[in-house]
Write a structure and sequence with these properties.
two-stranded antiparallel sheet, 10 helices
């Protein structure tokens, strides 16, 4: 019981620090300059990753236990690309909320995307049940590179390529892996260590870590619309709703593969391509 309590306290402290760190950095000059020039803050993202990484390092834990491993990377990359394609269902629902004028941050918009996420989860479980081992990952590395280059080539073709568009591709891909390291890597793995993975459904072994991490992931995103320094004082429960189910999608990939590569690809690729195209066409 003491071990479990200490693990929960550790996670909550890290969670609170990350939340307040993000809020505090928004008002700093260097971060504001990054956002104006590059569209995003690389410093904030690096610090976001550094907090749990420091905890793991100071506790002298094994990185592989937190999903930081390239073991069987060829298969996990294959799973990640398939998951990226499945995530198009959720991204399509998000775009639909924008086109309909609902907005993905609203509760109604969040519900629409959450329903799409449920369909994505069901389809991904079916794909995972039929996944075969992949020996050569060269083709998938090329596919990943071409997907990342796609919005840049579109920007060039339309004469709308800017530094912010390129930065969006880089930052969103990096940020996708960063969030996966923090939540599916650190939080989910730490909870699994103390609560175990006693349940099994659809070929996925899991425990409380999968559910709790998904809820924390959603709650974390509720604060995306909360920043009193610029007049925002409300929590986005719609955003929290669909990112909870999105977190469940990524968490399942983490449990199935034992690595952060698949959820990192599934998270980073759609964000990089979607956000960059949104900048090019003025959707976001």
């Amino acid at each position: 019981m003491k071990t479990k309590s200490l693990a929960i306290i550790e996670i909550l402290l890290a969670y609170v620090i990350l939340r307040f760190l993000g809020a505090g950095l928004r008002t700093t000059g260097i971060v504001q300059w990054e956002q104006e020039t590059l569209g995003w803050s690389y410093i904030a993202e690096i610090l976001f990753i550094a907090i749990p990484a420091l905890v793991i390092w100071l506790a002298r834990r094994k990185w592989v236990d937190y999903g930081v491993s390239l073991v069987d990377w060829q298969t996990n990359l294959d799973v990640g690309i398939k998951a990226y394609l499945v995530r198009i269902i959720s991204v399509g629902a998000l775009v639909a909320t924008l086109m309909l004028g609902i907005g993905y941050a609203s509760l109604r918009g969040g519900l629409i995307i959450a329903i799409a996420d449920v369909f994505a989860i069901v389809l991904m479980l079916w794909i995972l049940s039929r996944q075969q081992t992949v020996q050569n990952g060269t083709k998938n590395l090329l596919i990943t590179t071409l997907i990342l280059l796609f919005p840049i080539l579109v920007g060039l073709a339309m004469n709308r390529l800017t530094l912010i568009v390129v930065s969006t591709v880089v930052w969103q891909f990096f940020s996708g892996f960063g969030e996966e390291f923090v939540f599916r890597g650190y939080v989910q793995s730490r909870l699994n260590q103390v609560f175990g993975r006693p349940m099994r459904m659809f070929g996925i072994q899991f425990g409380a870590g999968l559910i709790v991490t998904s809820l924390l992931f959603g709650f974390f995103h509720a604060f995306n619309t909360y920043d009193p320094t610029i007049g925002l004082a409300s929590l986005s429960w719609g955003w929290a709703l669909f990112t909870t189910f999105g977190g469940l999608f990524f968490g399942i990939l983490r449990e199935k593969t034992g690595s952060l590569l698949a959820p990192g690809i599934a998270h980073g690729l759609p964000d990089a391509v979607g956000e960059a195209l949104g900048k090019i066409f003025g959707w976001m």
